[in-house]
Amino acid sequence: MFGKFGRYLHGRVTIQAQGKNLAGFINEALKDRIEFYNGKKLTDSFLAEINAADFRRLRKAAKKAGIKINIRNRYGFPFVALRWQKRKGLIFGVFIIIAALTVLSQYVLSISVEGNSRVSADQIIAEAGKAGLNKWVLKSSLDLDQMSKQVQESMPDLVWMTMEERGTNIKIRVVEKTLPQTVLFRGDLLAAKTGYVEDVIVIQGQALIAEGQLVTAGQVLIKAAGGMTEYSFDVSGQNRTKQNATDAPAAKGFVRAKVWYSADKIIPMEEDRTEKTANRTNGWGIKINNRVIMIMNQDSPYSDSIQETCTYALPSWRNWRFPVELLKVHYEETQKVHVSRAAAEARKLAETLAREELKQKLPSGVKVLHDKVRILSSQKGTEHVRVEVETFEDIAVYKK
Q1: Fold entry, domain 110-176
Q2: Which InterPro entries match (predicted)?
Q3: Is 148 in contact with 163 (CB distance < 8 Å)?
Q4: Are 282 and 329 spatial neighbours (Cβ–Cβ below 8 Å)?
Q5: Max CA distance (Å), the chain
Q6: Could you count the other beta carbons within 10 Å of the beta carbon of residue 197?
Q7: How would CATH label the architecture of 2-82?
Q8: What angle do CA 197, 200, 203 make, to 5 degrees?
Q9: Per-residue pLDDT tens over the stretch 53-98
Q10: pLDDT tens-place string over residues 215-231
Q11: For residue 196, which of 178, 219, 228, 176 has the smallest C-alpha distance?
């Protein structure tokens, strides 16, 4: 960390030297005690970083060797200071913004609610306001744990609540009471998917299939006599209450069957891909309306990188919004990597990816009888793997 700070403090210049006598140029520079960092020999040039203070002496070495030098990038405090010498008013404005953000960060500027569906967020925020949580209140004066208990006790539809500080935002997370679930039994029971029937249990209605039969998705399994019966269950599945019924009840029962799932994956033996390295840095600037002025790291210091931009603004007041925002650009270095895989390695990776895909397809809690991995014929330079899974599950559903 200290080395990185030292590089920023002294400044670095990325140079590209072009010419026939590159070896002579490097020797002359080393004689003058000029140090090169991250040197890279290209086809017709030499790319490296040097300290900003050494650049003038480097020009002498380039002149002696007949080398042409181009500046590719500038990095560090000396260049920032030079750029901002004529912008003293803007620097003063930056300090005012930072001071304002520091002061405002001590207050609650927004309140958000998460986890609610039946109880409105406005109602929860109103109850929190009665407990003392309001905008423009000092965060240090709030006892969030005590306030959470107070609001939870005042709202019988909530079984759990917590308040978390997220910068200038207070996030209220709640869990609502679960109401009794209404289950409708109506019409025929159909096959939700294709399967080989193992068990048929009829409670009401007439079975149209038998054990040992292969059924397809959408096929009628248990025929209803007609009508509809509606029951209500609590969360545990007990205490059934009949709410509405007709003289002719709907079909009810269970049909358990063997069901098959599969997932295919093809993995190349040779692959070129882009990966992130461990190098990353941030650039900072100011955004005034649509104009951006970078203070640090105007451009990415890496030859290949991805970047993500975030803005930080003062809170708006009514319809007025402060036109100046603090801008942060996050740079992450990337590099192109060539990957070579053996056949066994490619098959293993294909199997892993196929199993991850199957996890998304399988119903929650389903019983898996067995699985099989098949190595299929594939094009040259690739490995094709299929994972097949056989499950045992209830496939009878009502038509939606």
Answers
A1: Ubiquitin-like (UB roll) (3.10.20)
A2: YqfD
A3: yes
A4: yes
A5: 106
A6: 20
A7: 2-Layer Sandwich (3.30)
A8: 155
A9: 888 888 888 888 888 888 888 878 777 777 777 677 777 777 787 7
A10: 999 999 999 875 444 44
A11: 219
